[in-house]
Structure formats: C-alpha cells, structure tokens
Write a structure and sequence with these properties.
The structure is a homodimer. By secondary structure, the first copy, chain A, is of the alpha/beta class. Chain A has 12 helices and 11 strands. In chain A, helix 5 links the parallel strand 1 and strand 2. Chain B binds a DNA duplex through helix 2 and helix 4.
Chain lengths: 341, 341
DNA sequence: TTGAAAGCGGTACCAC
DNA sequence: GTGGTACCGCTTTCAA
C-alpha cells in the first residue's frame, strides 16, 4: 500500500493525505481523522526511501567506529553509549547507521558517507589528542558531535565526561578512608581523558600535601592483562598500594585477579575504584568495585550526545555546544578503609 | 555534484554516465574511462537516497537487538558478531541499521521496518526456544537469518554454533586431564543453546560411564554474580568441583573471583573452560581461561551469517539454509590436570 | 481546505 | 554504443 493507493481509496489527493498524515494544520479535522483511520487500517507507512529522497534528509545518524588496536567496539562502554543514543534516535525518528572501519579507513568512510548523503550527521567517539576526523568533518560540512574532546577543544561541539572531577572525587574518597598509597592504572597518555584523569588524581593528592608516587602510576591500553600485570608488580614491589584507581572496569578485573592470587580480599585488604561501570556483571551486590561512573550515566551521556547531535543537524549554523557530563561515584563492597599499617 | 551535472560536464547523457559508472558492458571502454576519471575528479558519488528509491532496494540490513533483562547488547559477543557481519556488509555495499528495542516492542519495530521498507532483511539473534519473531518475519515476508535456533528449527534459515560438540569436546578435554567432578555453569534452560550445551556435557560424561552430578550444575542468566555465587556455593559444599565449564566468559569471571577468594590458583588447583571468548582482556597470555570458542570464531560466524543473509536477500525463494558452525577449543594457562585427590 | 504538478536524483526500458 | 524518458513514492509549491 502506498500513498497513491491510499489516496485513491479515500477519494482524496495524495497531497491531502500526505498533509493529514504529517500533521499539517490546514487539513480539516474530519478529513484527518478519516485519513488516519484508513492508514491505520491499511497498515500504511510511508516508504522511507521515497520520503528521504523527497525531503533531502536521510533521517539517519552514523556511528563510525574505528576498529583500532584498542578494540573500541569491544570496549563495553560502546554498548551502553549506543543504547542511550539509540533511544533518542528512535524517539526522534532517526535511524542509526553503524559502520565499522579498520584503522585509517575512516577518512574514506566519511568521504563516502558525505558524498552519497546516507546520513545527516555523525557521532565521533574516542577522539585522539589531535584527531584528523575533526578537520575532515568540518571540511565535508557534515554535522558531527564528539564524545570526548581533543587537545584543542575549540570550534566544534562535544560532550565530555568531567574526568578531572570524577577522578578527583574518587581519589578524595580513598584519601578520606585513610589510604595514602593509591595506585592509578590509567589509559594511554596519548588520550585526552587519560591526562585529565591523572590531573584529577594529582590535584586530590596535592590538596592534602601528597605527591604522586611514580611507581604507583601506569599507563597503557586498557586491557585485563595490563591491569593484572601492573597490579601484580605494584603489589609485589616495595611500598605496595592499599588502593587502586582504574581507568576502566577491564583494568579492574585484572587488578582483582592479581589481588586474588595474593589472598588480598577486596574491600578489606585492598580497595578498588574504577571508571566505566558498563558491565552489569561487575555488580556491587556481590562485591564488585566502586565506580566513578555508572552504566546509567554512560547511557545518559549517550542520550545527551544524541540530543545535541540532532539539534546540530536541525540547525547546523548554531555555535558549537560544549558540555561537561557529571558522573556519580558509586561505592561497592570492594572499597573500604585503609588497613592499619 | 549529481548525475545530471556530471553528465552535462561530460557532454553525455545521464544514461550513459550511469551505465559507465555501474559497469554495464555496452559502454565503450574509452567513454567509461572518461566518465570514471571525471567522477573521481569531481568526487562524485551517486546519491544513495535516490538510488534506493529507483532500485527499490534499501541496501541496508537491520540488526534489531532486544534490550531484555539479559542485556543482550551489553553481552560482548554482540560486538564481535557485529564486527564480523559489518565487514561483509561493507564489502557487499550494504549498510548496517542498528535498532535497539525494549522488551516486547520488537513486533512493532519489525512491522514498521517492513512497512516503510528501510531494510532488505534482518538478522535475528539470541532466539528463544519458541520465538514469535520467526513467524512474524515470515508473515511480513522480510528475509531474515537467525543466529542460533529455536526449538523447531525447520522452515527458516539459521546458523548456529555447534554447541553440543563444543561442550562435549571441552568436557572430554577436562576428563582427559583427570577431572571427574566438573561443574557446569550454564545459561537459562529456556534457551536452546543452554540445553544443547548441557547435552554435550552429559554425553561426554556418559561416554565414560559417569553421571552428571546435580549439585555441580546450575542455570541462570549469565552474569558475573551468578558465576561467583554458584561457584562459591559449589566450592564450599561437599564434593567440590576440580574444574568448571562456563557457558559465558562473564560467568568465568565470577568463577575466578570465587576461586581467588579461596586461594585456589587457576590451572593448578582448579581449571576453567568457558564459551564465548569475546573479550580480549581475558587473554590467555597472562593466565586467562580456556575457551570453547574464540573471538575470531565469533567474528567468523558473524561474517558467515551476513553472507547467508545477503544470499537470501538476493534470492528470497531459495530453500532455507541451515548451518552448524564449528568452534575451536583454545586452552589457556587456567586449565591444568586434576590435582591428586 | 483541497488538488495538480513539479521536483528529489537516480535506474532502466525502449528507440535510434 | 548512446540518448530520451518514464518511472520509484513521497513532499511541497502554487493555484483554485
């Protein structure tokens, strides 16, 4: 069933039926009711391909996910972010086009996407400190929103987690519990978020007159192996930490394994707080770590990013929007006071 | 730049340019070369919206992911499956439309998708034993491929992991190592895959004249908490297991925590094999569990599913295709011989 | 308040 | 081998 047939069945013109269906005010209410009823009865839905061509809008938003060594896609934060964003897209009538690109293919992917007009805008995730995607998208004149930010965060729209505050708060929390040797297992220094998180950590220490201990800080790709190996080394070394701050839940899993092997009980002998609680299977109910961000805050960030991007698409000439996103500190049973020295 | 302009610039008709670009044979090679060069120079790409309308094909495949309590989307197997499928879609010129639906909204979502023709086919994942989606998609006449299968697996196309064989092989492996009390922490019995995995496990035991021990079998939603709590109970109970088979890597994480708390060293005091190695952070290099499936096999399954679905879209009248997908057993340092009793 | 008709940007049939 | 042209199914001006 298409518009033409529906109109014919109603003895109305396509125009009127289209207007009735799309809520234009100039249609008589009685007519509109008839049309709506008939459309429903016939299970009519406007053909999206035709509509897209006619309106010139794709009603689609692209998420272009780079499959780098960091295995973005597998990072579970993506799932929750997608869920949040998808919720808003669905509500606003947008489709979500997911495209995964390997390594440096993202330029080609964006050019393609821009040239054939398959999306109205794109979401950019996990930006590097200097990220070529920003300039490219500006050049292509494709509306985009960045989750996170680059080193120079001016001139484009982004939403970023308030990383400094999150890690400052988490560090403060551990300091309040009496911990003094707090390890920071962070992501690669090349990322803006890692630098900010370190700053939050250092600021909290400095506020109490403490110096960060170099042997208690490590940076690398956020894998379980990294968490395990560096936690193990720190625990076996001199001046072992009594608490860990992890930049990712994945790192925390590794920390937990290292602790387990040494008979260290989380929340009693050792405390762990990690960022990115995206995995419900690390739930606090049964003794998971504490989190500087919760699943729901990641989802909420996804929602907000989607809203901002849609705004941008609807009004591409608005000035850049830049938002900091606050996360909650959730404390689980794996975080406790510092054991007496 | 659109086709009309490109044609004008070349002093050719739209028809010829279109044909040249789309590889039709009747174009003179010299003309084709000219067209191709001009298109490249002008950075021309056919407008996908127009093309879709004209051809009647959406060149898009839908992945409709239910956000049930099982939190499908967060289950990391989805990421790898998507990556594999996305690879094939990209190669074949298809877009991937991701739509997440809450609970029972999937019927509405499918009807919508079918009525407005935004996709050419859909991928169905994690089917229930009896799954209403199958009948619905048949009724809507929308090509679809199921990853997994329902209780009655006739009459539609699917690709399923060879669950029975995978778990039989894993159980055999542990038996060969001398283990006799092997626990099975499985998914909810309501799923076909859980039943098959149990069958593989039981068959392997039976082949050696062993009976499955009820107190070493548990079923539930595959969370870390489930793994942790049931492993803890089993380890603390009478006749504790010397090895675990887990239906998901997430469960294995829970098992590992329970073992760690009890000072049990994986690979020495206790062995673990789990299905679904989707998380690189559980890598074997540093002592992760063994796996009945590897990341690459999940990805490969995604690729194969995509290929089958595209075949189905291109020739919707072909008889149902049904494939079993073999996985590899990968053994890590967490699996070792049974400690002497 | 309604309708006729011209796009939107391609594809593909038919004629030359 | 190339070109004219009628679609694809909807939106949107313009006229009535």
């Amino acid at each position: 069933m298409n518009l033409k047939e529906l109109a014919a069945a109603l003895n109305l013109s396509q125009t009127t039926v289209s207007r009735a269906l799309n809520g234009y005010p100039e249609v008589r209410e009685e007519t509109r009711a008839r049309v709506l009823a008939a459309a429903k009865a016939a299970n009519y839905a406007p053909n999206s391909r035709a509509r897209r061509l006619a309106t010139g809008r794709a009603m689609t938003i692209g998420h272009v996910i780079p499959l780098t060594g960091r295995a973005e896609m597998v990072n579970p934060i993506f799932a929750d972010f997608l869920i949040g964003a998808g919720e808003v897209y669905a509500r606003e009538g947008y489709d979500l086009l997911l495209s995964m690109v390997t390594d440096g293919d993202s330029e080609a992917a964006f050019r393609q996407i821009a040239a054939n007009g398959s999306v109205d805008g794109v979401m950019v995730q996990a930006p590097q400190i200097t990220d070529p995607r920003i300039g490219l998208l500006q050049e292509l004149d494709l509306p985009f929103l960045v989750h996170g930010r680059t080193g120079d965060a001016r001139g484009y729209s982004w939403l970023d987690i308030a990383n400094i505050r999150a890690f400052r708060r988490a560090t403060d929390f551990l300091l309040d519990l009496g911990h003094r040797r707090i390890a920071l297992l962070n992501g690669q220094e090349g990322f803006d978020f890692a630098q900010r998180r370190r700053r939050g950590y250092e600021e909290a220490l400095a506020a109490r007159g403490l110096c960060p201990l170099p042997h208690l800080m490590a940076n690398d790709a956020m894998t379980e192996g990294f968490g395990y190996l560096s936690a193990a080394a720190m625990l076996d070394g001199p001046e072992p930490p009594t608490a860990f701050l992890a930049s990712s839940v994945i790192i925390a899993i590794g920390i937990r394994r290292a602790c387990g092997e040494r008979g260290l009980r989380m929340g009693r002998d050792i405390s762990v707080i990690c960022h990115d609680d995206e995995l419900s299977y690390l739930n606090n109910d049964v003794g998971g770590p504490a989190f500087t961000a919760t699943r729901s805050s990641i989802r909420a960030a996804g929602r907000r990013c989607a809203e901002l991007l849609i705004d941008l698409i609807r009004d591409p000439d608005q000035p850049p929007v830049q938002e900091l996103w606050e996360t909650d500190l959730t404390v689980g049973r794996s975080t406790g006071p510092c054991p007496a020295a």
